[in-house]
Amino acid sequence: MLGPTIIAHGTEEQKQRYLGPMLHADEIWCQMFSEPAAGSDLAAVQTRAKKNDDGTWTLNGQKVWTTNAQFAAYGLILARTNPDIPKHKGMTMFIVPMDAEGITVRGLRQISGEAEFNEVFFDDVVIDADSVVGGEENGWGVGLTTLMFERLAIGLGSSSFGYRATRFAEAISADPVAANDHEVRHNFGELAAELEAIRWTGYRSISALQDGQIPGPEFGLAKVTTVNCAVRAGDLIADIVGPEALDEASEWSYMISFLPGLKSAGGTEEILRNTIGERVLGLPPEPRLDKGIPFSELRAKEKEGAAA
Questions:
Q1: Active site residue: 27, 150, 170, 183, which one?
Q2: Are residues 130 and 10 in the same domain?
Q3: pLDDT tops 60 at residue 175
Q4: pTM for the full model?
Q5: What's the domain range around 203?
């Protein structure tokens, strides 16, 4: 997710320095976007980066839900650098060494028992002038590139995650009663068809990436479909296996407990569907409800406009 972002927006020096070690996993990276008050509305980030007289930057703020921050050597962080212009335009993306003075990483325990996610605090963290990725106040566009590749990685990585129709079929066929149950077979057939469609979509996507294309908003649908299919498969298998499916010794326990968190990664389903509807299908945007106008009045105005 972060390598392609640096390829698309980084300087030549940044590409030469960071891409090789990242490719070989000699240096692990993390993505620092979400904040306690800026999850679904990413443009509302409040972490500040102030430019110093010598060209360096000082970071202050907090990020949350940061995957693998405890292992990372570097991270990409979206920070507000100009609070006096519209919120989408006042942000900048930075490369941050995770061992810099003033950074504190605290694990967040999940239902699976792991602490994969973290909250990260920045207290007067000074970073170099050449840490900017994509230019000052261009952070929104750089961040969208990362999000597109995140959705691509989740949506088209179903096989590597273990969300494979053949794997689910083996679990179902192990129970003769379930294997011959009409409803079970119907439900499994639907999700298996969806996963097969995702697999072929992945082949087309790889071809597009090889031609130098950056993933568009339509890739959000692959992410939504993959996660929803995996959730349905986990529910189906839990119904068949019973409570033992949630036992730590079960091969399904981790998947079932992990997937609810994955639903929000790269954007919630509601946000992704709105984005696809507006930017891919050309549907009108949803009415804005943040201006104090009751929803009923908004709908009434729409009907008046249509009648006129």
A1: 150
A2: yes
A3: yes
A4: 0.71
A5: 156-267
